[in-house]
Design brief:
The complex is a heterodimer of chains A (about 110) and B (about 110). In chain A, the strands form two sheets. In chain A, strands 2, 4, 5, 9, 10 and 11 form a six-stranded mixed beta sheet that branches. In chain A, strands 1-3-8-7-6 form a five-stranded antiparallel beta sheet, with no helix packed on it. In chain A, about 35% of the residues are buried. Chain A is globular, with a radius of gyration of 13 Å. With about 110 residues, chain A is an all-beta fold. Chain A starts with a strand and ends with a strand. Helix content of chain A is about 0%, strand content about 60%. With about 110 residues, chain B is mainly β. Chain B has no helices and eleven strands. Chain B has strands at about 5, 10-15, 20-25, 30-40, 40-50, 55, 65, 75-80, 85-95, 100-105, 105-110. In chain B, the strands form two sheets. In chain B, strands 2, 4, 5, 6, 9, 10 and 11 form a seven-stranded mixed beta sheet that branches. Chain B has a four-stranded antiparallel beta sheet with strand order 1-3-8-7, with no helix packed on it. Classes of the chains: A mainly beta (about 110), B mainly beta (about 110). The interface of A and B includes residues 1, 33 and 88 of A.
């Protein structure tokens, strides 16, 4: 299956600014997940939003989901230099095996 | 130690050799996954498993073989390594479709 797309591919901001990353997906989903990856490391889960949810918060993170447009967004408020990483969305399909399909990712750089 | 581990962490092998990457998780998660990560491609699913003795292909399965005789182990074998299989390989697990995935630290494989 084809991966979803993330926008922008790269984002550069100053500390304290907000960062918004968008994700489009292609299939009927069970849920949509966001992950973070620091350079050279494994992925760390940030938020999971179910197909019947529209918005979810976790600390400085806010995720929205629009199933009619097959899109999701991740907002990081009051960004810090430590938020510098790659961010990936991943769609989990509504199949019995539930494989996770990742987008290409957004590289976020937060300048101190 | 609890968690998900991969071995080896680094491997250099020659074209045509058989290589097995190991993945072990201590949570008894039902689902296990193998991904490869290459620049410009994000994470691509190679194979996944919903339970012991149940495996299925992902996006890029050619040249790889998996098995899952025990719930906690999910080895990935490259039957005859090629240079195009040079990549970083991540193993992941989760307890079900509505849960986050936990990633191993990755194996950096170089095929010369």
């Amino acid at each position: 299956s084809q991966q979803g797309e993330e926008d922008p591919q790269a984002l550069s901001i100053q500390e304290g600014e907000n960062a918004t990353m968008n994700c489009s997906y292609k299939t009927s989903i069970n849920n949509l997940q966001w992950y973070r990856q620091n350079s050279g490391r494994g992925l760390v889960h940030l938020i999971l939003i179910r197909s019947n949810e529209r918005e979810k918060h976790s600390g400085r993170l806010r995720v929205t989901l629009d199933t009619s447009k097959k899109s999701s967004s991740l907002l990081i408020t009051a960004s810090r230099a430590a938020d510098t990483a790659s961010y990936f969305c991943a769609e989990r399909g509504g199949t019995s095996y539930g494989k996770l399909t990742f987008g290409q990712g957004t590289i976020l750089t937060v300048h101190p | 130690d609890a968690g998900i581990t991969q071995s080896p962490r680094y491997k250099i092998t020659e074209t045509g050799r058989q290589v097995t990457l190991m993945c072990h998780q201590t949570w008894s998660h039902s689902y296990m996954f193998w991904y490869r990560q290459d620049l410009g491609h994000g994470l691509r699913l190679i194979y996944y498993s919903a339970a012991a003795d149940i495996t299925d292909k992902g996006e890029v399965p050619d040249g790889y073989v998996v098995s899952r005789s025990k719930t906690e182990n999910f080895p990935l074998t490259l039957e005859s390594a090629t240079r195009s299989q040079t990549s970083v390989y991540f193993c992941a697990s989760d307890p079900g479709v509505n849960y986050e995935q936990y990633f191993g630290p990755g194996t950096r494989l170089t095929v010369t």
